[in-house]
Amino acid sequence: MVDVLSQNEIDALLAALSSGEMDAEELKKEDTQKKVRAYDFKRATRFSKDHIRSLTRIHENFARYLTTYFSAQLRTFVQINVVQVEQLPYDEFIRSIPKMTILNIFEAEPLEGRMVMEVHPNVGFAMLDRLLGGAGAAPTKIGSLTEIETIIMEKIFSRAFESLQEAWKTVIDLQPRLEALETNPQFMQIVSPNETIALISLSTKIGDTTGMINLCIPHVVLEPIMPRLAVHQWFASQKKSRAPEEQEALERRVNKAKLPVIAELGSSWISVSEFLNLQVGDVLALHKATDEGLEVKVGDKVKFIASPGTVRDKMAIQIHEIVSEEVEEIHDE
């Protein structure tokens, strides 16, 4: 940050220059000297601001999907938001989490390497309490998980990774898979201590219980797709064309859609008083000659010209002309 001199400091500086106490040439030399900035190699900057912004957008979507999923599973109020996305050494992340926590170690093909979703015990045990019929309160004392509790946790978090797959779909089609669930950070070593990681922190509220969910993604895992995390590349991927399978599925659904088809015999105009005086046996003259074909409308557009008739004691029409787009436009005018 640049220091701003007060008026008294400026006056004192000018007075010192005038009296010869300070040399202007020496001041110029000081300005031309190269500024040295300390660089900590243990905290190497591997993610640019563009990468951080892209990771933030992706995991904001992840937070929304996760909120919907947990709300449906726990049947209670759930709110999840991205608080911060930062880069730091893996060792610093391990030292920042509780000694007893819930660590979901997972892989996501085609990316190589392991990642971690750390769930604060308050949040994890509140989920467990809710799934087992409780109110979803955090425990006063946190102990180790039993085998049954571990299985329940693995099931709910395995399906939570489907939300991660959906959030990353704009960048890469991931196949996340839970590998193991640990409770002691000391038994988890997915990368070297000095490896830079992206840490995505999600504030989580379940009922009245609050806590954090942290997503730890090592730089070495994301390195092959780093160019895709550039902002211009990320937005360009939003406009990609549909896959052939998606296109075919869409065509099949459109082909099965039902549309109203109306064969219009003709039309006429009458006054309100004539309408009120209509009786059985009255005849209305239509604005159409008997030798003219019937207009067949699909929706509100005239698409065919047909002749009336019957088929197996039912009224029917026989199409003998297809109305082209040009003719239809002239007809509408």
Automatic annotation (TrEMBL):
Superkingdom as given in the UniProt entry: Bacteria
Subcellular location: Bacterial flagellum basal body; Cell membrane
Molecular function via GO: cytoskeletal motor activity
Membrane topology, record value: Peripheral membrane protein
Pfam family for this entry, one: FliMN_C
GO biological process, one term: bacterial-type flagellum-dependent swarming motility
Chief localisation class: other
All copies of domain Flagellar motor switch protein FliN-like C-terminal, residue ranges: 253-323
GO cellular component term, pick one: bacterial-type flagellum basal body
InterPro entries recorded: CheC-like_sf, Flag_FliM, FliN-like_C, SpoA-like_sf
Keywords for the protein's UniProt record, in alphabetical order: Bacterial flagellum, Cell membrane, Cell projection, Chemotaxis, Cilium, Flagellar rotation, Flagellum, Membrane
Family statement drawn from the similarity comment of this UniProt entry: Belongs to the FliM family.
NCBIfam families for this protein: fliM_switch
Protein name, entry field: Flagellar motor switch protein FliM
